[in-house]
Amino acid sequence: MQTRALKTLSEIAKVGSFVTAAQHLNMTLSALSMQMKSLEKELGVALFDRSFRPPKLTPLGRSICEHAASVLTAEDALKAACDPNDQLTGRYRLGFVMTASVRLLPDFLISARQHAPHASFGVATGLSETLEAQLVNGDLDGAIVTASTKPDPRLSYHLICEESLAFAVPEEYRGLSPDRLNEQLQFLQFLPDSGIGKLITKYVEPIISRRKRVLVIDSVEAIMECVKNGIGFTLLPEPDIRRYADNRIAVIKSQRNEISRQLVLATLRNASTNRQTELLSELFIN
After folding, report:
1. pLDDT at residue 257 above 60?
2. 90 backbone dihedrals φ, ψ, rounded to 5°
3. CB 190 within 8 A of CB 217
4. Average pLDDT, the chain
5. Where on the phi/psi map is residue 26: left (φ > 0), alpha (ψ -120 to 50), or beta?
6. Dihedral, CA atoms, 194, 198, 200, 204, nearest 10 degrees?
7. Residue 112 maps to which CATH number?
8. For residues 107 and 36, what is the distance between their CA atoms, to the nearest angstrom?
């Protein structure tokens, strides 16, 4: 039995569609269908109920998918153990928290091209909580997320970088304290339920609780455009502010130097993947 067919089966189970799986695997639909029929013949069981469109996995098919995942994990571990250069090999699914992906992803891919030429990467973006849930479900192999004060015990975290938070205010309001700013402007809050949003809320809550002049926005770029146009002020990681700032914005460092966010590489807590995690971490440092 070839593991290629098991990989195809796993992809179909993941996306729920022969057509989409064929596109992801760069196969024709007919080739994928023939591969699955050959696998069913080899195993002597029906993996799919073809009375549905698209075909659905049978209960036995779902069980075989679970066994296939173990086989594929063992295959990856075997390949890694046999790699004389101690390099990453295989295809990895990585997640990046949205507020950092625009800055970290290009450098990571350049580093991977230089230091992990035998590995390939699929990339997804999302909020920290969503990415961590995908890790636990096995949909991702690693994710760059904002460090939480309540880390998931099922995950390991490896520090990638630390970023100071700063206020971005319209230039004409430079010099005002956060208390005074809140008297005259709305506070523009990035998603308060996100990882970075929770850090921001914790810091500014004493400032904004009296007036509750808060506008929640789910885009850093949109927040910065609002600041440029004098609509409000915000608190964000300084690199994000610098990326979008121009002469209409004053960047004010927090008076509390300890206010920062840590970006960490989260992976499943599994001793067999420790070296893999180390090698992934190094790609963000190189």
Report:
1. no
2. 100, -175
3. yes
4. 87
5. left
6. 140
7. 3.40.190.10
8. 39
β-strand pairing of 142-146 with 119-126:
unpaired
Its sign, for the CA torsion 171, 176, 178, 184, is negative
Q: Taking the C-alpha atoms of 73, 22, 65 and 74 in order, what is their torsion angle to the nearest 10 degrees? A: -10
Number of domains comprising the chain: 3
Per residue in 37-90, pLDDT (tens digit) is 999 999 999 999 988 888 899 999 989 998 888 888 887 777 666 655 567 777
- Based on the domain organization, do 76 and 39 belong to the same domain? yes
Residues 234, 281 within the same domain: no
Q: What is the token pair recorded at 86?
A: 């101690």
Burial of 200 (0-12, 13-18, 19+ CB in 10 A): buried
Q: Which residue has the tokens 């046999």?
A: 82
Confidence of residue 143 (pLDDT cuts 50, 70, 90): very high
Question: What is the H or E stretch that residue 83 is in?
Answer: none
Report the CATH number at residue 12. 1.10.10.10
Instruction: Judge if 134 and 273 occupy the same domain.
Output: yes
Helix or strand run (H / E) with residue 29: helix 29-43
228: exposed, middle or buried (C-beta count within 10 Å: 0-12, 13-18, 19+)?
middle
185 shares its domain with 238:
yes
Whether omega for the bond prior to residue 153 falls within 30 degrees of 0, making it cis, is no
Q: Match 């507020």 to its residue by tokens.
A: 99
Q: Which amino acid is at 88?
A: L
Task: Say what the pLDDT of residue 106 is.
Answer: 92
> Are 134 and 269 members of one domain?
yes
The pLDDT value given to residue 225 = 96
Instruction: Look up the domain containing 232 and give its range.
Output: 163-260
Alpha carbon 274 to chain centroid, angstroms: 19
